[in-house]
Amino acid sequence: MEWPQGVLDVLERLDRAGYGAWAVGGCVRDLLLGRVPHDWDICTSATPGQMRSALADLRLIDTGPRHGTLTVLTPRPIEVTTYRVDGPYADHRRPDQVRFVDRLEEDLARRDFTVNAMALRPDRPLVDLFGGRADLVARRIRCVGQPHLRFEEDALRMLRCLRFAAQLDFFVEEQTAQALRQGWAALNYVSAERIGAEYQKLLCGPRCGGVLAGFRPQIEAVTPLRPGDLSRIDQLPPRSGVRMGYILASAACLDRLRLDRRTRERVQWLCRMRDQPPPACRGALLALLGQAGEQALEDLLAIHAAQGEDLSQARALLNGLLAQGAPCRLADLALKGDDLTALGLKGSRVGRTLNRLLEEVMEGRLPNRRDALLEAVKRFLPPEG
Q: What is the dihedral of CA 317, 321, 322, 325, to 10 degrees?
C-alpha cells in the first residue's frame, strides 16, 4: 500500500503531539480494494485548536470549523477532522450540532456504510468494528447500524448508496435496500445541486445499468427514464452527459438537477437526435460536426450503437472525414466574408452565400480551395448590378 508522504507527515505530527490519528473513510476502502485513493481523510482525537498547534508548520485552511475540520494543503489536500458524534438531523441532511469526542470507535459508529467505516494506519492493524472488510469481500453495500435511521439522518445517503453500488460493482444488502425504497421520498429535502452531483457520479459507474434496473422507481422519481431495458448503458463511455442522453425520457427534467449549461445543452441535443436515423452520408455527418462538434457526434454514435443500430457506414465515413480534415464550419472555408465583399456582395447576402458554399463543399460538389470557391460565387451568385 502506497501512502502519500503528506499523509504520513500529518500522522507523524499528530503522534508527536500525543493525539490519536487514523486514515478513515473512502481512502481506507480504496486501499483495501487495491485502488489509488482520490481523497485522503484523517480523523484525530485532537480538537481543532490542538490540530492547528500540532500542524502549525503546514499550510492549513479552516474548511469546516463547525465540524472540526481543517484542510492541510499538500500536493493533494488532506482533510483532518476531530473525532465526533452527530446530534439530531432536523433537515434530513446535516446534524444540528456535533460533539467532539476522544474515542475513534464513537466516530466510526456515526458513518454511513460499513465499507466507509474503517480506520487504518501504515503501522497498525485495521480497525473494522462493523464488518466493512467482509462486506468488501462480499461486494456488499450495507449501512452502519439501522439503515432507516441512517437514511432519516441524511437523505442524500440513499443516492450515495446507489452511487457506490454502481461505481464499485457491489450489490445493496437487503435491509439497506428495503429502507432505501421506503425512505426515498426524504430525498426531497436535499438540494438539487447535491442530487445532481451524486446522480452524475452514479451514472458514470461501471455497474450503472444494474442499479437502474434494481431501483428504477426510485431513479424515476429523480429523472423519468426511457421505457424498456436500459442495461446497455454500461456500453457507453463513462460520462454523465452521454449516459443521460441515452436513458432520460426527455431533457425536460434537467433543470431540477442544476446541471451546468454545457452539460444541459449536450444532453438536450442527444435526446433530440437519438431517435433519428444515424447519419450515413457525407453532408449529414459534416453538418452534425459543424453543429455540435466531434465529441458530441461521437456520443451520439455511441448511443446509436447502444440502441443496436448498424453504424458501420457512418463510422467508416466519419473516420475518413476526420482524417481528411474536411470542413464543417464557416471558419473552415477557404473563402472569407471579405472576399465576397470585394466582389460587391453586401449585408445578409454575404452570410447566405458563405452558407451555400459551405453546403456545396460539405456535400463534395466543390473543393475547399479559394479559387474554386470564388469561381463558384461568380457562377451561381453573381453580384447584383
A: 180
Strands of the chain, DSSP E: 21-24, 40-44, 60-64, 69-72, 78-82, 84-86, 98-100, 118-121, 124-128, 140-141, 171-172
Q: Give the SS3 label for residue 308.
A: coil
For range 2-22, the mean pLDDT = 95
Let me know the angle formed at the C-alpha of 173 by 170 and 176, rounded to the nearest 5 degrees: 120
Q: If you ran DSSP here, which 8-state letter would residue 189 be given?
A: G
Name every residue whose Cβ is closer than 8 Å to that of residue 282 and which is 6 or more positions away in sequence.
317, 321, 326, 362, 363, 364
Compute CA distances 67 → 244, 352, 368, whole Å: 35, 62, 63
Radius of gyration, alpha carbons of the chain: 28
According to DSSP, residue 257 is labeled G
Q: Cα 214 vs. chain centroid, distance in angstroms?
A: 21
Q: What's the average model confidence in pLDDT over 237-254?
A: 92
Question: Quick one: pLDDT at residue 11?
Answer: 97
Q: Is the dihedral of CA 328, 329, 330, 331 positive or negative?
A: negative
Instruction: Give 62-109 pLDDT, tens digit per residue.
Output: 987 778 899 999 888 999 999 999 877 776 667 777 899 999 999 999
> What DSSP element (H or E) covers 180?
helix 174-183
* Nearest partner of 23 among 127, 141, 135, judged by Cα: 127
Q: What is the pLDDT of residue 14?
A: 97
Least confident of 17-31, 194-208, 274-288: 274-288
Note the pLDDT of residue 382.
53
Rounded to two decimals, the pTM is 0.85
Residue type, 329: R
